[in-house]
Write a structure and sequence with these properties.
Blueprint lengths: L1 E9 L4 E7 L4 H14 L6 E2 L32 E5 L12 E5 L1 E6 L12 E4 L1 E2 L3 E2 L1 E4 L11 E10 L7 E2 L1 E7 L5 E4 L3 E2 L11 E8 L5 E7 L7 E12 L22 E3 L10 E4 L2 E4 L13 E3 L7 E7 L5 E10 L14 E7 L5 E7 L16 E8 L4 E8 L7 E11 L6
Antiparallel strand pairs: 1-2, 2-16, 3-18, 4-6, 5-10, 6-7, 7-18, 8-9, 10-17, 11-16, 11-18, 12-15, 13-14, 13-17, 19-21, 20-23, 21-22, 22-29, 23-28, 24-27, 24-29, 25-26, 25-28
Bound molecules: calcium ion (CA).
Amino acid sequence: MWYPTKIEYSDGVRRLQVFITTEGVGIALVQWLWWWCWALRVGMVQADSVNLVDNGNFERMDFVLGKGSKGIWEGKGMTRLDVEAGTPAAVGAIPGWRVVAGGVQVLSNADYASASANSSFCIHLNSFLSGPGTLRTMPLLVSPHLDALYNLTFSAAAHPDGGSASRSLNVSVFRKRSLPETKAMPSITSSSSSRTFIPWTTYSLFFTGTDQNTYVEFASTTAGKYGIILDDVKISLVDVNVNGAFDSSSLKTMQHSSEHFLVLKPPSTAISNWLVTSNSIKYSKSDYSSSEDMLSGFVDLNAHSSGAILSSIPSRMGSSYELLFDYAGNPQASIDAFLEDSAFLVTIEDQAQGTILSSEAVPIAPSSISSDISNITWTTGTASFMAIGNYTKFSFISQIKGAYGPLLAKIRVYEIPKEYST
Ligand SMILES: [Ca+2]
């Protein structure tokens, strides 16, 4: 069951929307709403796997709670820490966040059931000393791309220990050189006094990027000692590519060779949504250092010689898209291999007609290639195109000879919406 509630905020150009789910079904329902919402737009989407909010799940803390702990800011009662604005703890106790008004509390799951099973901490947006508090992210890890759509999700619930029956919260998105967008979230009703069965709700909002520094703020608007508890804050690019991070595959176990990769030959579709089209490539999911998201996989376009991979996305005729891809040279390759003008080609074509929409030769400077395979420096490349059909395919084709070639990771495609209405 879900509330078909859609609340729109608009400043004329940018628009923020919220979809509300009931408790319990959380992520699955958001996912479902997500597909439902997007079915009207482009048919098939998947959120980017990278969270742009540093420490969005509040699991990294710069103190220790617990009996006998000796952290810098030791928690009162040992399982709770009050963090007040204007104190050193406000900018240090919760990495990636700062308390900019009032006070908040870090709560341990030793006392309070968290929003997800593997969570140890959540945040109470009120403190006993200051009442309502305001918690703000540091600038997002990557500035959201111009006109690309982003999804902000978070879990919230009423603090179970006491307080008013109805709790409220404002969520704001701040972008440099733009007016902030603030959304008053629908009130949360206190329905449980149990610390072990907290009815968490997952919220989902959308905003568009501006290529500028961006941060997000959660401000309690609930008076008193008890307000809303918050966890699992995530911001992801709305990505129309499927499995661009290469993190889904049919390979049940990664049986690595001594060189830490699997060789895939045409017509392998072992990496979900990707087809190996030429020669052979190498795939790794855990070794080397992947781009941004350590859980993602990556490929080396060369296994024995220059290989190629292909993927396809649903597209809308006349819509513009941006393709982003992270690349690097394999440190094990001979430097001479990368002296060519082009390390690999990125070719985008309409699937039905075969019309080339974009073709780009990407060089990799030998000086940019890391010497250490555990610390690869990635570069983000871009290609843009306008779709002319319902499906658009794109290929990455190595131009390097030999057994080590261009590495690819984190391939994302986003539509540049003309209008954000659904
Ligand atoms: Ca957490």
